[in-house]
Amino acid sequence: MLGKAWLWASEKPRIQRFVAQGRIGRRVVERFVAGDTLEDAISVIRALNEAGIGGIFDLLGEGVTDPAGAQAAAEEYLESIKRIEATGVDTTVTVKLTQLGLAFDKGTCIDLLRVLAAEAHAIGTYVEIDMEQSDYATDTIDIFKLLRPDFPDLRLALQAYLRRTLVDLEALAGGQPPKVRLVKGAYAEPTELAFQRDHEIDQQYRFITDWLFDRGVDPAIATHDARLIQHARVSAETHGKSVKDFEVQMLYGVRRDLQERLASTGYRVRVYVPFGSAWYPYLMRRIAERPANLRLFLRALAGK
Ligand code: FDA
């Protein structure tokens, strides 16, 4: 319940201004965000690489409402891709389509995403598409479908909590096998659209994991839930595959111990590394996921 209230707050600009105006301790932000600058993100990814872990580069930002904002985000991404090439770090590039204008101009969003996918491909990596609120799910999936013939490496995040996800996967499997990042889902969604209970979401997560080993390609199991990662390992083996045939993805600042343990025991691990000043909605989602984070956040807000 408290988590839902927090997710509600994450979409309210007035609360955002209150939180962002210096009342929140840096340490809460720093726990989950690599820093304000591109160089902060690069140095975090470099350190991950030294531990045998890949990066997932994320320029924070979403819900862009004007063409100039979308253009600026795309340009910043292009600069970042150049820097990724120059430094040689091992990372993919993840993007939210509302950052590229999906909320007001689908055509512009497609054009900008196409440019980013081409530039990422040119330096030997690829783009991952985050999944946002369910209002954007159909457009996001359509855009993925449109671009994947040209960019077969493109990866799409799908949310296990959405009731529609299996139907979406069946439709996606009609073309080439889909390359998916499976997540539980991080937004406040109504019961009609999304499973709410943990055990239902976990059951769905397991079922989709099996589906991905059966009919997908190079699945990314994006969770910190050790039981679901174990399920993925068993499912891979059942399908005649190994831990080298899927990726485990986790978030910067969450379960570092598990990230390192998995990487040192042969798993392919990538960590999502967000950076930039637009951290508010991202941080609120991370806080909503865990009661202990709420306590940390409230103490920081009170200046303790
Ligand atoms: P769960 O929440 O059950 O957590 C399992 C354990 O992990 C907890 O017991 C705790 O130990 C630890 N943990 C989890 N979250 C924590 C936190 N915030 N702070 C501290 N500890 C925490 N969602 C989405 O809707 N669209 C997307 O595109 C993405 N993309 C994405 C990429 C990657 C790489 C990851 C890992 C996650 C996402 N998500 C996402 C977020 C996802 O939907 C989900 O909200 C979080 O991963 C938390 O769920 P878990 O699967 O980790 O399980």
| Strand and helix order | HHHHEHEHEHEHEHEHEHEHH
What does the average pLDDT come to?
92
CATH class category label of the largest domain: Alpha Beta
Q: Percent of residues in helical segments?
A: 40-55%
Low-confidence stretches: none
Count of DSSP E strands? 8
Structural class by SSE content: alpha/beta
Name the shape in a single word.
globular
CATH A-level architecture of the largest domain: Alpha-Beta Barrel
Distance between the termini: 25 Å
Figure out the total of helices: 13
What characterizes the major β-sheet?
8 strands, parallel, barrel
Fold-level CATH name of the largest domain: TIM Barrel
Q: How many distinct folded domains? A: 2
* Ligand identities: dihydroflavine-adenine dinucleotide
Write the layout of secondary structure elements.
Layout: H1 2-9, H2 13-20, H3 26-32, H4 38-50, E1 54-59, H5 67-87, E2 91-95, H6 106-122, E3 127-129, H7 137-147, E4 155-159, H8 165-172, E5 180-183, H9 198-215, E6 220-222, H10 226-238, E7 247-251, H11 256-264, E8 268-275, H12 280-288, H13 291-301
Parallel strand pairs: 1-2, 1-8, 2-3, 3-4, 4-5, 5-6, 6-7, 7-8
Helix pairs in contact: 1-12, 5-6, 9-10
